[in-house]
Amino acid sequence: QAGVSTAVAWCFTQQMLPDDVPAAQYPSLAAFSAQAETLPEFKAAPYGEGTYRAGG
Asked: Angle at CA 13, nearest 5°, toward 12 and 15?
């Protein structure tokens, strides 16, 4: 669970505050999140308004 929470929090932070938390300063965290984003579970529910597919 900690890994999922970390990846989700990183993605959200990068969407909302990219200038305050530059990815270049946290390369391991950015790489971890990028890897997590390739998993089927993350692809099934991508971040963003209107991107969650209800029921399917």
From this structure: 65
Other residues' Cβ atoms within 10 Å of the Cβ of residue 27:
9
Is 0.70 topped by the overall pTM?
Answer: yes
The pair of three-digit structure tokens given for residue 36, joined into one six-digit string = 């997590």
Write out pLDDT tens, residues 1-40: 889 899 999 999 998 999 999 999 999 999 999 999 999 9
Provide the phi-psi class of 12: left if phi over 0, else alpha when psi is between -120 and 50, else beta. alpha
Distances from the Cα of 17 to the Cα of 1, 8, 11, 12, 42, angstroms = 23, 14, 10, 8, 21
